[in-house]
Amino acid sequence: MAMLINGQPGEQITALDRGLAYGDGIYRTIEIRHGQPRLWAWQYRRLAADASRLRLPVPDAALLLDEIGQLADGVVQGVAKVVLTRGVGARGYAMPADCQPTRMVSVSAWAGYPPERARDGVNVRWCDTRLSCQPLLAGIKHLNRLENVLARSEWSDPDMHEGLLLDQRGLLIEATMSNVYLVQGQRILTPRLDQNGVQGMLRDWLFAQAPQLGYQLEEADLGPAQLWQAEQVFLSNSLIGLWPVATLAGQALPQGHPCCLQLQALLAQQD
Amino acid sequence: MAMLINGQPGEQITALDRGLAYGDGIYRTIEIRHGQPRLWAWQYRRLAADASRLRLPVPDAALLLDEIGQLADGVVQGVAKVVLTRGVGARGYAMPADCQPTRMVSVSAWAGYPPERARDGVNVRWCDTRLSCQPLLAGIKHLNRLENVLARSEWSDPDMHEGLLLDQRGLLIEATMSNVYLVQGQRILTPRLDQNGVQGMLRDWLFAQAPQLGYQLEEADLGPAQLWQAEQVFLSNSLIGLWPVATLAGQALPQGHPCCLQLQALLAQQD
Q: Which domain holds residue A54?
């Protein structure tokens, strides 16, 4: 793994950084292909939106792209991670008046998921962990991720690939590391993320791209029962791409709708 | 400031630590007096309880005490901070099977609050930020503190000393960095922390010590209106001690009940 911290090679930060003290920052995980970050415009747009929501200075797109490019040079397939924190401040929660953010850019080897998951579908379960509701943080890929850690700790079976999360209201929100979609004819429904959840870059991309395949992607309040009424359920995440869901809690879900396959084909064409 | 990381002098950690990536850890802030951590037994009990709740290995009390003692040697008054994270793991939320926690112990100069606040009382305001409800994390002093950061960012007036927080249900929970108490005769009421909030060490101490002064400390569901019916409102935190509240949102609150003064006197005798 190679890393730049505020542009300098290294992988150490001060333990006084607010990213550690309070989780006061954001991040993105980005696929690298042939030395370049995939879907960069979508990634950057989301990074910038999240930074603005937390009143973090938005780093320059060209600067980030240059730093990723330095580390990704010659990398055929890999994973970049960008972490942006509010840097070091005086003790206490108050945001420093003169914020000197910490910018961490790293590129590591492609950890890879078996490609048959995208083809054959994945097994998912319900998590007991229920997401809290906090509109001020909803959708942001921030560094306060203990709920995801607790949810992911509920299982260790390697044949169970993801866990679905309800929130305190009983609504379906997401899976531990991916967004979720329910296909019904030409409609695709995905949970509203105005109370909780992480707005993945591919979710934005799907909103923009689904119509050209004749699909209408819409936000909805979705309960767990609606998963069984869908013609297909699939997941998205910048590293996994799109995964159809084969089984939920050990029961087969409907398969065979072409939607996920069509979207996968469209996604495969993207740089 | 002096720091030990896993017992070694230094103040740098790897940017791959889960404390940074996910806020996957806990901390305590501890007053140092004459080279020793004050109310250590209470601090350690809470640290150990929080670690257990997050399934972090609980560090040995003697080890922590030794490390604090090394750094605090000769310090008349100072601030120690202990941060404990789940260390470095593979990518992803899953807890590493073989957890190698990161233990950071630091001692810095006494930042100090003006002593007249404890005597004359403080000015508090309402925060617009509402705490979310998450029983799995409630009470724990974990590293996911963005709600506190947002709440504390709501004001910058140095004469406003704390901000009170309601939760999504509209119940009073705490202030941004302190617990809150309402005195009514010989009863002291404090918010239940089973859905959110941070269980401060002094809150535990008050539960144990208040009876010897003839006070009964009880948890309750408290709404904002009850602050105006209390004979006294006060705050607790390991560095501020106990602060009576003089004004709320610019209006004077009832003063003159001896409770806070009596508890301050008892606290002053503690090592």
A: 2-109
